[in-house]
Amino acid sequence: MAKKSMIAREKKREALVAKYATKRAELKAIISDESKPMEERFRATLALAKLPRNSSAVRLHNRCQLTGRPHAYYRKLKISRIALRDLGSAGQIPGMVKSSW
Predict the structure, then answer these.
(1) Can you tell me the distance from the alpha carbon of 64 to that of 91, in angstroms, rounded to the nearest whole number?
(2) 64: left (phi > 0), else alpha (psi -120 to 50), else beta?
(3) pLDDT in tens, 20-43
(4) Closest residue by Cα to residue 93 from 73, 77, 72
(5) 50/101: higher pLDDT
(6) Domain boundaries, the chain
(7) Looking at residue 1, what is its pLDDT?
(8) How confident is the model at residue 98 (pLDDT cuts 50, 70, 90)?
(9) Handedness of CA 92, 93, 96, 99 (dihedral sign)
(10) Nearest alpha-carbon partner for 18 in 64, 60, 61
(11) Could you point out which of 9, 34, 37, 100 has its C-alpha 20 to 30 Å from the C-alpha of 63?
């Protein structure tokens, strides 16, 4: 089980990303638009830099929904390999058979 503080920090980041998503998209559109004057693009770059760092989607890290584990995460299932193995062994995932030899 991951530390509760790490899970809470990740949820806080998700909230910030959702809050600033439209603002960041607008500023990035201005920055990448070559037809705009250089001064306006530079002001948009400065405004983007003033936004909170954790509002960037790049800073998000996938975590297992059951345990909070950040490594060995299956995107399709949104759980870690360890949780997948436990659920498979318990027969809670339809069609999955844990092999042993």
Answers:
(1) 19
(2) beta
(3) 999 999 999 999 999 999 999 999
(4) 77
(5) 50
(6) 1-61, 62-93
(7) 76
(8) confident
(9) negative
(10) 60
(11) 100
Q: Which of 101, 83, 92 is nearest to 2 (CA)?
A: 83
Q: Supply 17's token pair.
A: 């990303």
Task: Give dist(CA 51, CA 11) in Å, integer.
Answer: 18
Q: Which helix (H) or strand (E) holds 45?
A: helix 38-50
Residue the block writes with tokens 């030899």: 101
Name beta bridge partners: 73.
Answer: 80
CATH of 1-61, one of 1.10.10.60, 2.60.40.10, 1.10.287.1480, 1.20.1600.10: 1.10.287.1480
Q: What is the model's pTM?
A: 0.77
